Amino acid sequence: MKILICISKTPDTTSKIAFTDNNSKFSTDGVQWIINPYDEWYALVRAIEIKEADPSTVLHLINVGGAESEPIIRKALALGGEEAIRVNSDVADSYFVASQIAQIAKEGNYDLIFTGKETIDYNGSSIGGMIAETLDIPFISHAVKFDIVNGNAVVVREIEGGEEIDSAPFPLVVSCQKGMAEQRIPNMKGIMGSRTKPLKVVEPTDISPLTSVVNFDLPPAKAGVKLVSAEHPEELVRLLNEEAKAI
Amino acid sequence: MSVLIFIDITEGKIKKASFEAASYGATVAQQLGTSASAIVLGKSDELSTLGNYGISKVYNLSNETLHHFDAQVFTKLIADANETIGADIFVFSNTTTGKSITPRLSVRLKAGLVSGAVALPDTSSGFVVKKSVFSGKAFAHIAINSAKKIIALNPNSFSVVKTEGAAEIIDLNLSIPAAKIAVQSVNKIIGDVPLSEADIVVSGGRGLKGPENWGIVTDLAKLLGAATACSRPVSDIHWRPHHEHVGQTGLAIAPNLYIAIGISGAIQHLAGVNRSKTIVVINKDAEAPFFKAADYGIVGDAFEVVPKMIEAIKKLKESV
Asked: In this complex, do B297 and A209 lie within 8 Å of one another by their Cβ atoms?
């Protein structure tokens, strides 16, 4: 089994969200960069567990990004995986990124491609499906459990108001979320070992993006909380009914 | 430049989020001076009602093999159907179904995709769609530069507009490819309001001290016809099921009313709920960060406050 895990670089969940250049660019001032949590905690760790159960499994990581992605790629390698591939390019749009990954996936003949369910910055949830369509293979989104049974993937995925159990042949793309695995912290051996693992840098293929960012804005600030006395919850009910018209 | 809206059905019923997508698509069509059609894959006897949401034609492929959703099959069918429909703008709701089809369709049609749209497109110069980014902490305005365009609309971000109208139903005749994914079982939590579509959500946190105390949350939710949710610590320690977890790593929701009981409001929790229209916080700790993000709040003991709220809502309902 050869697995490709897609790793994205995102701002830490507690980062201050601000914009520069006439609100056209995300302000990276003081931002701590992390591996997108869905990619790290669920996709990567589940892939590592598969390799622990079957040591013949091959794990490769892929990132589309500039040299500034390398610290988070090394951190991912400290958790697991034999090697990483970085497609040396800025992120233009989801279509551009997915096309780059699909190209590498095709050349490398991977059986399984893992992504996180979405990145916590762009919230697109579209990379996995785009890779799958480019390669003409199935895609299962929002996986909470993944197993290999008799040569097929058996996946539990979350759907609105419940769960669905699917089985699918390989090759396959799966987007992962909470439930797939438990977060791990790299140990010293992993950190030391990650420094010498191969990190291949390849140039992007020529793909025209389909969308572009015009600008960003922040939601209007809240007017401030209206506090009601704990002695009179009925006053809150009245406000919700008459003022907010919410009940 | 016509608009095609994908309508999602379960057991023959049109989903609420699809009515929002229909209204949104019809409004986009009106804005561009064109017509809005819908496509429905599967059997439903509710199709003509789509006329009341501004849809003029409903293309339907009624076949029981479509009862089980398969994104690869659905994508091909939509693309094939569009050979004759000829739409340029495709509207989906950004649900798990929409998130499975839209990226595939984007690649197949070379159509730029904006997922998580929260407003009508700005067509004054190009075609720019506002979407939620940074887990609800900001918005991005994204230009779709390709000829064909796909918009996946976030649930609860566009109000349904009801009109009078009749939709013409046109049967599609397409060959259905075999699905590669086999659905072994579907387990729906029967009777509950799906969290992502709920108008009102009542949510509990660690302040409730234990799963045995959830009665006040479920009672209040039941009375309001609301869905129940919880914070991450609560689902991590298995007081409540994982599918109720809202926040950065759980579900992101945007109900009309969000009532948080005993939740302090960590930034990761706010990321999942800050698109809610009205936020109510009930917490013993006046310093809880959630009060800063709230519209209404009560600093007090939930076990005393919530039962009094329930009584007041009951009285209110009786008086109407």
From this structure: no
- Tens of pLDDT, residues A95-118: 999 999 999 999 999 999 999 999
Spatial distance between the Cα atoms of A15 and B227, rounded to a whole number of angstroms: 30
pLDDT at B193: 76
All structural domains of chain A, each given as residue ranges with its CATH number in brackets, are 2-214 (3.40.50.620)
Instruction: Tell the CATH superfamily of the B3-171 domain.
Output: HUPs (3.40.50.620)
- pLDDT bin (cut points 50, 70, 90) of residue B190 is low
Select from A164, A165, A238 the residue whose CB has the most chain B CBs within 10 Å, as the one to mutate to test that interface: A164
Q: Looking at the domain B195-319, which fold is it?
A: Rossmann fold (3.40.50)
With CA atoms as reference, report the closest residue to B280 among A105, A175, A222, A26: A222
What are the extents of the domains in chain B?
Answer: 3-171, 195-319
**pTM (2 decimals)?**
0.92
Q: Annotate A184-233 with DSSP letters as a single string.
A: ----HHHHHHHTTS-EEEEPPP----SEEEEEEEPPPPP---EEE-TT-H
pLDDT tens, A206-225?
999 999 999 999 988 888 99
Return the residue of B nearest to A140 by Cα: B100
For residue B144, list its beta bridge partners: A211
Q: Which of B136, B144, B267 sits opposite A14 (nearest CB)?
A: B267
Residue among B47, B65, B64 at smallest CA distance from B5: B47
Token look-up 């940074």 returns: B134
Same-fold call for B3-171 versus B195-319: yes
In this prediction, residue B194 carries a pLDDT of 80
Say which residues have a Cβ less than 8 Å from residue B85's Cβ, sequence separation at least 6: B2, B4, B37, B39, B59
Which residues does chain B have within 8 Å of residue A222's beta carbon, measured at their own beta carbons? 292-295
